[in-house]
Amino acid sequence: MAVHSLTVKQILSRVRQVFPDAPEAYVISLINDALTEAGMYNVKTAHAKITTVADQMWYDLSDEAYSSDGSAYKLDLNKIFRVYFMDSSGDYMQIPRLLDKDLLLTDISSESALVSPDTK
Amino acid sequence: MASSIKYPDSSCVYFIEGDKLALVTNVDSSGTQNTSLRKRWKAIQEAVTDGLLLWYHAEPNNINSINDVPDIDNSLHYPIVDFVKKCLYMDRAGVSPDPNASSVAMNMAQFHENKWNEGIKRYGMRKRDKVGGTRAIKLPNLT
Predict the structure, then answer these.
(1) Which of A1, A94, B119, B130 places its Cα 20 to 30 Å from the Cα of A23?
(2) Domain boundaries, chain A
(3) CB A38 within 8 A of CB B72
């Protein structure tokens, strides 16, 4: 038994009860605005895998960044809440987030990879 | 290919600056400690295919056609109607030459904005939360 959900067509028909002349393309644009705003309130959880690069310290999390697990989807990331790294057995182990970044001292290879994004 | 790091939970850390994630470690590609007290962390020194696994809150996919279903929990679909109506009422208030009609449209825009805020921001977590059941209580051993 399927759950009840609203398609864009149904949303449009509800809107047109009050605004009969509402243009379809404009309503679709407004729905996308609503989804973008709703995305700020943790409405969707996802995971992605990224391939590490030797001597690269920084990995791109911007809206245009891709995961590297072969699915070729963009990260579309708002907030990271857990990070795992693969250990020598091939299992993913959760790694901690460094809070005191002022203590960090990196080597020259890390600094030179400062702006290299991880892309496919 | 697995990494050479046996205990990433104690050898690797990450931090985030803006839209970049930094992955640093204190061991080299053979798993041997290679940092000092002064230089505590270095960039990871090996390429590991799919080595990082991130769990994150994502943005919903956008919709393109009239038959698409919004990419969020179905309990959050109804506030979307309010969001659209809010915007259309504000448009109407902006273009209406009649001040009374404009005022009514602004009131309706405010009404639908409140419903949107309640549906997504105030009660959104309650609607999409999948956690249920009795919690187990673990008492400390006082003996």
Answers:
(1) B119
(2) 8-41, 46-120
(3) yes
